């Protein structure tokens, strides 16, 4: 598989942030995150997914959570300072972020949206997020990602999942 640099990787390079690129075989379609962890031989708790929501005031908020967990929308809204949040429609992901479903990275979206990362990242030495393309992930230190995108960190997953 060609390991061409993605926009997310170029952003990390420009910021002098150390990362490891990982790629896995895919037919070009989104792969469940738990399967990504399996394909890469990485503990599932280290692989995170990027979810895009919209708040009551219509602004977009991004949440980055472990792939095996489910977003707790009440906790997420509280962490984002919103009354409520709801997932955007899959058909709107590309228009809003510039990425496609299954390849949405918290770095390099069309605009840097308010982002909240689940607090479970704090217990990890490194975490993986999408590199902005299906079949590619980047592994980096959680604090580097938090600092780079100006993310908040909070408990945002359903109870018993982190």
Automatic annotation (TrEMBL):
EC class of the enzyme, as a word: lyase
Record flagged with keyword Magnesium: no
Pfam families: tRNA_edit
Coiled coil start-end: none
Keyword set, alphabetical order: Lyase, Protein biosynthesis
Domain YbaK/aminoacyl-tRNA synthetase-associated, residue spans: 35-147
Gene3D superfamilies: YbaK/aminoacyl-tRNA synthetase-associated domain
InterPro entries listed in its UniProt record: Prolyl-tRNA_editing_YbaK/EbsC, YbaK/aa-tRNA-synt-asso_dom_sf, YbaK/aa-tRNA-synth-assoc-dom
GO molecular function terms attached to this record: aminoacyl-tRNA deacylase activity; lyase activity
EC number annotated for this UniProt entry: 4.2.-.-
Keyword Lyase belongs to the record: yes
Any GO BP: translation
NCBIfam families for the chain: YbaK_EbsC
Membership in a protein family: Belongs to the prolyl-tRNA editing family. YbaK/EbsC subfamily.
Full protein name: Cys-tRNA(Pro)/Cys-tRNA(Cys) deacylase
Source organism of this protein record: Christensenella hongkongensis
